[in-house]
Design brief:
The chain is mainly beta. The strands form seven sheets. A 13-stranded parallel sheet has the order 6-7-10-14-19-23-27-31-35-38-41-44-47, covered by helices on one side. The N and C termini lie far apart (134 Å). Residues 1-19, 32-53 and 518-532 have low confidence and may be disordered.
Length: 532
């Protein structure tokens, strides 16, 4: 029986590189009655012979070129890399016979559209550690030509949101004045021992904020942002979170860093406004570094926009800020065990003004922080020497902080119902000009003109002022402004190490007589053989 009468059609899948040879063989076997109607590329050939969970392609280009003809919904494929196999952009996909959304083109990350046919390759669920950002097309390497691709890919990532893994090693370069904005919750997670790094191009002049999250809640774990020493003409934020149209959960920045920032930088800036709230922001165990200047720059800036919004229960703990300071407003901020050094603007920790129907800043705990090594005699744009803590927080507890080698006082308080416990000031008050600048501690009435910033009901227990290496610093252990009318009380403070113990006008009659005392001289030692 002739071969042509045994069957009408059969399928033989061959690699396209072997198609010509296969055609010759088939023609000879069939007496010229058979022909090849479709050839497959190498990747199509592999996927067509694989089980539904065993196919693979090398790159994103190959995935887009892969034929979906004859494949059922749910067909699985593994893309080995984005630009090249095993470049870190590996990702599992499954086939949907519906077009990609947004639009038929997809985003070449969680959705990859085939070049031919209606369908979409959808990324499988993210691994436990999150989608690898290289799966969106980001390229690691300190290479300028990667900037454009990384700019596009990071924009996709922020639009998708969810959990994103940032690998360590070579940095991911970003172009100058890139602005990444998102209204989607997202979490970047790396390894704090080898953090993933986002690095700006060199020579940038910043004209915009870098990361902006509006009514969204971002998290950063084990991530480094290297701004690569840019310049700026106006204050810019490295990471900004805003509650403008909704109440949101606060940013988390943990075991991460922002380095090589310029002056006029707010490295992390939170803004609550229009009656909305940011709750539970956490900035923990992180490192911030910038070039100091006498104009505004802060590693952390939490603002209620003059009580137009509220920031509740922020935690700022265990961070190190080099060349910059912290500004905090809101309800019950807990700012503890941070180290701030080498700054030229403002005070190491400034707590916002106690104004509004409720005080915008109230119930503060400021404990265990270290302030050190500001430039002696320097003054900022407000003609103020850099000191330790400026307290405008109604009902605050300030304890166990240490100040050493500062131009300004260790602690200046304006706020009512303030308690200062066991703080230690050494070699501070080396600045000039402002009232009380030569003191270790100052109590002053604030400018808001309310009872909450009148410095009434201030209690001081066990605080210490010591002379350092600079003669005359501090000049006074405690300075109390002439217009302070509230009672200043406490006991066990040791101001005798300063040139003066308490410097206060004679008109103040509400100072607790137990407030300061000089330590008693040590009794002579006595040998056992000595007689009484």
């Amino acid at each position: 029986m002739p071969a042509s009468s045994a069957f009408r059609r059969f399928t033989l899948r061959v690699n396209s590189k072997r198609a010509a040879g296969a055609a010759t063989l088939l023609a000879a076997l069939a007496g010229g009655s058979l022909s090849i109607v479709e050839t497959l590329t190498g990747s199509e050939y592999l996927s067509s012979i694989a089980s539904p969970s065993g196919g693979h392609v090398g790159t994103n280009v190959e995935l887009k070129a892969l034929s979906i003809r004859g494949k059922a919904s749910g067909y699985e494929i593994f893309r080995q890399g984005f630009y090249a196999p095993f470049d870190g952009g590996g990702q599992h996909y499954y086939l949907s016979l519906s077009a990609c959304s947004p639009g038929a083109s997809g985003n070449d990350f969680t959705q990859v559209a085939p070049n031919v046919g209606t369908g979409c390759w959808l990324a499988a669920s993210a691994p436990e550690k999150g989608y690898d950002l290289r799966a969106a097309g980001m390229r690691a390497g300190d290479v300028v030509t990667y900037q454009s691709a990384n700019n596009i890919a990071l924009t996709k990532i922020l639009a998708v949101g969810g959990a994103i893994f940032m690998p360590g090693g070579a940095p991911f370069r970003l172009p100058c004045n890139a602005r990444f904005s998102s209204s989607t919750d997202i979490s970047f997670a790396g390894n704090s021992a080898d953090p993933g790094t986002l690095k700006l191009d060199s020579g940038c002049t910043l004209s915009t904020d870098l990361f902006v999250f509006v009514d969204a809640s971002p998290s950063f774990y084990g991530v480094r942002i290297d701004e690569n020493n840019p310049t700026a003409t106006l204050p810019r934020a490295t990471i900004a979170q805003g509650a403008h149209a909704a109440d949101i959960t606060g940013l988390v920045f943990e075991n991460s860093s922002i380095i090589n920032s310029s002056t006029l930088t707010l490295q992390i800036a939170l803004l609550a406004t229009a009656g909305h709230t940011i709750s539970y922001p956490k900035i923990i165990g992180s490192y911030f570094q910038l070039t100091p200047a006498t104009t505004q720059n802060q590693c952390i800036n939490l603002s209620t926009n003059n009580f137009a919004g509220d920031i509740r229960y922020p935690v700022i703990s265990g961070n190190e800020c080099v060349g910059s300071t912290i500004l905090a407003e809101g309800l019950n901020p807990d700012i503890n065990n941070n180290t701030l050094s080498g700054y030229l603007f403002g005070q190491g920790i400034a707590l916002g003004a106690a104004i509004g129907p409720l005080p915008s800043t109230r119930g503060c705990r400021i404990e265990g922080n270290i302030f050190r090594d500001t430039t002696p005699g320097s003054l900022d744009v407000n003609v103020t020497p850099p000191g330790g803590i400026e307290n405008n927080c109604f009902n605050s507890y300030i304890a166990n902080n240490t100040c050493d080698n500062l131009g300004g006082p260790c602690i200046t308080t304006f706020a009512d119902e303030t308690v200062l416990v066991s703080n230690k000031a050494r070699d501070v008050g080396k600045g000039q000009a402002n009232y009380g600048a030569h003191a270790a501690y100052t109590i002053i009435i604030g400018s808001a003109g309310t009872a909450r910033d009148a410095s009434s009901h201030v209690t001081m227990i066990g605080n210490v002022a010591e002379q350092g290496d600079t003669p005359g610093a501090p000049g006074c252990g405690l300075v109390i402004a002439p217009n302070v009318a509230g009672r200043i009380e406490g006991y066990g403070n040791q101001f005798a190490g300063a040139d003066g113990s308490i410097c206060a006008p004679a008109s103040i009659a509400t100072i607790d007589p137990r407030l300061s005392h000089a330590p008693s001289p040590a009794s002579p030692s006595r040998k056992k053989s000595d007689k009484p």
